[in-house]
Amino acid sequence: MKENRLVKETEDLACGARVIHEDIVELVARDMPEKTLLEGLASFFKVFGDPTRIAILMALSKEEMCVCDLCALLDMKQSAVSHQLKTLKQSRVVRSRRAGKVMYYSLDDDHIDSVLHIGIQHIREETTEHRLL
Amino acid sequence: MKENRLVKETEDLACGARVIHEDIVELVARDMPEKTLLEGLASFFKVFGDPTRIAILMALSKEEMCVCDLCALLDMKQSAVSHQLKTLKQSRVVRSRRAGKVMYYSLDDDHIDSVLHIGIQHIREETTEHRLL
DNA sequence: TTAACAAATGATCATTTGTTCATATGTATA
DNA sequence: TATACATATGAACAAATGATCATTTGTTAA
User: Fold this and answer.
1) Full residue range of the structural domain in which residue A106 is found
2) Chain A contacts of B79, Cβ < 8 Å?
3) Which of A6, A93, A104, B38 is most buried (CB neighbours < 10 A)?
4) B120, A37 contact by CB (below 8 A)
5) Residues B116, B51: one domain?
6) B83-98 pLDDT, tens digit each
7) Of the candidates B28, B51, B118, which has its C-beta nearest A62's C-beta?
């Protein structure tokens, strides 16, 4: 039976599941990124997962802006904006520069803009597909 | 005073903040995406903000895989994997196809792979910069 | 139809997250 | 130095999230 070559009954896995395609699992396992990279990626993207932060990023993708201007633009408390900017900065998504009392924020590098635009493209194509189907 | 042209003292904003660069705020406000798009983007990216889901996506970026193989690869309970796959599918990040009892999952489109790779690039350059500074 | 199994789902619970309030820093200027 | 202002930060709390357990749904083959 050639099926036996592919199917391995392993009741003793921690997850309690059987492996159906042992070969593929091993192949994929071989070049899975390290846990550190997976976590790094997750916390990088997590930052994009909030509407307020996305709004901030879209704004900064147009212009460098200071905290209180962002407050006005988003109609949000200064504290809330500052907290979010801190999150964004810690993840190196945004950089800041001081000019007297004013702190100016801008996107850290071009990757940020790229990520945003791919997201927008993905969403637009989704809604387009709906029309086609 | 030319400063007065730029500075507008608006104590009556909901956010209680003053606008320092009124012109920039208005400029940026003009082509801010709609709230719907901002929320769409956020929930799209939110999906990338978890190590387990990133692991699943990295795996699927190599090979189409079924649920129990993912369980084995990630050493996770079938239920946990299924729940995450549901999340991924609802956000149209992943698609599924049934073959008998087995459900095969794969990335929804090329955007997903692009997003992942930009993330990886961003992280790599970060660590490179550290060495240079 | 029944047994076996792959996958999905609902409820639960500990943990994380985002906002708010109150307050603290840091900077410029009177 | 004292005051005003731009921003940052800590504590608190409601809301969202992810894993787990138990159970259900859907599919195949005996």
Assistant:
1) 41-132
2) none
3) A93
4) yes
5) yes
6) 999 999 999 999 999 9
7) B28
pLDDT, position B126: 75
Whole-angstrom Cα distance, residue B130 to residue B132?
Answer: 5
Same domain, B87 and B120: yes
My answer on whether A10 and A59 are in the same domain is no
CB-based contact (8 Å) between A76 and chain B?
yes
Residue B78 sits in the same domain as residue B109: yes
Residues whose CB is less than 8 angstroms from the CB of residue A119 and which lie 6 or more positions away in sequence, other chains included: A48, B41, B44, B45, B111, B115
Which of these ranges, B29-33, B113-117, B129-133, has the smallest mean pLDDT?
A: B129-133
Closest chain B C-alpha to A127 CA, distance in angstroms = 11
- How many angstroms separate the CA atoms of B110 and B133, rounded? 35
Q: CB pairs under 8 A, 24+ apart, for A79-85?
A: A80/A52, A81/A56, A84/A50, A84/A52, A84/A53, A84/A56, A85/A56
| Across B59-68, average pLDDT | 97
Whether the ipTM is more than 0.90: the answer is no
State pLDDT tens for residues A80-113.
Answer: 999 999 999 999 999 999 999 999 999 999 999 9
CATH number for A102: 1.10.10.10
B78 and B127 fall within a common domain = yes
Question: Given CB atoms, is A71 within the 8 Å cutoff of chain B?
Answer: yes
d(CA A85, CA A56): 8
- Domains identified in chain A, total number: 2
Answer yes or no: do A93 and A125 share one domain.
yes
Nucleotide nearest to B68 (CA to C1'): C6
